[in-house]
Amino acid sequence: MCTASAYMKGMKQHLTSLRGISALCATLALSTWLALPHAAQADVPDDMARLEILPGWQMENGHRMAAIRVQLAPGWHTYWRTPGETGIPPQFDWSGSDNLAAVDIHWPVPAYFSENGMWYLGYAKEVVLPVELTPKAPGDITLLGKMDMGVCNDICVPMSARLEATLPAGATGPQNDAIRSALANRPARLTKARCTAVPISDGLRLTTDVQVPALGPNEIAMVEHPDRSIWISEAQTRRNGGTLHIETDLVPAEAQPFMLDRSALTITVIGDGRAYEAQGCTGG
Fold first, then answer.
1. In terms of Cα–Cα distance, which of 202, 260, 258, 208 is closest to 235?
2. pTM attached to this predicted model
3. Which residues, other chains included, contact 98 with Cβ-Cβ below 8 Å and sequence gap of 6+?
């Protein structure tokens, strides 16, 4: 198996671990960028987070399916793309890559956590994030990027991982079952989401109705906009049989009403280890 792992040693070291580098290997350098009080340093395990790139396979459409695997120390967790009431959302920068036109991350269904009166969505122990890579032209893809993430237990540690890999066209890597399992655990698609947006003093109020099965007592709805500078309030929900009614406020940086492209929204309903997702919504 071809791997390259990065470990965090205490809070004062930057450690790079490179192993078995070949055409299908990934090189990671993991570093911390948060200084914690000395008393907290002893609570951070040596193997708090371990990352590797799974090279995956060439897809029939010419794209490459790879993955980022994050393994966490016992008791530690990291966050889904929109954490909830608390948490640090992962961020990626692939600007240094070669022959790469687009990156699409296929997020597995997150788990629901509740602690100290706050809830959040994320992953414990391990998460495999399938990454679909679109090349600019047929041929090898060279990844050179960075992943910023939060890793938390009693304390939260923002971390930055350098991601590097050369993926030859047509080559197949090991551990493809882990990638396929993560792909199978994505949210099911919602095909009918109806929404209306009305102006409020500092933005818009969005009302959405989706047809979705009940997902237990911790059922949560999330509304996302591709422009992350737009603040979105925690969704208020109420259920009427198979219909979930969702209300959220969207406030841009200018704090005023704006034109909303409904097709750009992502609406996700999560609960009981399951999730349903709609890309865009139609006028109500």
1. 208
2. 0.83
3. 141, 142, 144
